[in-house]
C-alpha cells in the first residue's frame, strides 16, 4: 500500500545559537489548501516569507500554525526604553489630568506609545544577521521534518482503517448481489402475485398493458447498475490507496459516489433484506467519508 499522510500533527525543534536558544513549534489540522499563520518575536517578521515558502514546498494541504521563540542570549534583542522621552510624556499626562480631569496614565499605555519602547537590532553586521536567520530557518526545516513524520504515522493508521472500510463496502455489495430477493424466480413470483391481486380486486384493466407496466416497474427496481458501479468504485479506492500520495481530494469525491449509489440502492429496493443492507452500507460509507477528511 502506498504512503498516505494525515493532515493533523505536531512537532517541535530547537537549536542553540549565540543570539539565544531557537525553538519552533508547528502543528497542523485539516484544510482545503495550504494555509499558515506565524507567531514571531518582534523584529523577526523577515523570517515569515522564507519560512512560508519552506512549508509550502513540503505539504499539499492543511491549516498550519508555527510559533518561534528565542530565549535571551548574549546578543538577543532586548527592549530599550527612551527614559527621557518617557518622562516627558508622563509629565504631559499628569498636566492633562490636573487641568482637564483626564484618566491617569498607565505604565502599559505609556510604553505602548511610539518611540518610548524599542527593540534595536543587536546584530548590526549583515553577515551575523544572515547567520542567525539561517539558523532559525534550519530549525524550522527540522520542525517540518518532525511534522511530516507525525502526519506520516497518522496517515498509516488512516490507510489501514480506510482499507478495512473498503473491504466492508465490497462485502455488503456482494451480500446485496447474492440476496435471495434478487433471484429471477423470486422476482417473477412476486410480480405475478401482485398482478393477480390487482386483477381480482378490480375490473376494466387491460391485462396485457398491466403486465407491461409490471415489467417496467421491475426494470426500475433492478439494482444491477448500482452494484456494478459500487464494485467499480471499490476497485478505484483500492488503486488510490495503493498509489498513495496526496489522494485525499480524490477519495473524498469517491466517497460522495459511494454515498450516491448507496442512497439509490435503498430507494430502488423492493425487499426488506436489501434495504437493511443498503442502510448498513450507508453507515460504512459515512465512516469512510469522515476519515477521508483527515487525509492530505
Automatic annotation (TrEMBL):
<keyword id="KW-0540">Nuclease</keyword>
<feature type="domain" description="Endoribonuclease YicC-like N-terminal">
    <location>
        <begin position="4"/>
        <end position="159"/>
    </location>
</feature>
<protein>
    <recommendedName>
        <fullName>YicC family protein</fullName>
    </recommendedName>
</protein>
<comment type="similarity">
    <text>Belongs to the YicC/YloC family.</text>
</comment>
<dbReference type="InterPro" id="IPR005229">
    <property type="entry name" value="YicC/YloC-like"/>
</dbReference>
<keyword id="KW-0255">Endonuclease</keyword>
<dbReference type="Pfam" id="PF08340">
    <property type="entry name" value="YicC-like_C"/>
</dbReference>
<dbReference type="InterPro" id="IPR013551">
    <property type="entry name" value="YicC-like_C"/>
</dbReference>
<dbReference type="InterPro" id="IPR013527">
    <property type="entry name" value="YicC-like_N"/>
</dbReference>
<feature type="domain" description="Endoribonuclease YicC-like C-terminal">
    <location>
        <begin position="179"/>
        <end position="296"/>
    </location>
</feature>
<dbReference type="GO" id="GO:0016787">
    <property type="term" value="F:hydrolase activity"/>
</dbReference>
<dbReference type="Pfam" id="PF03755">
    <property type="entry name" value="YicC-like_N"/>
</dbReference>
<dbReference type="GO" id="GO:0004521">
    <property type="term" value="F:RNA endonuclease activity"/>
</dbReference>
<keyword id="KW-0378">Hydrolase</keyword>
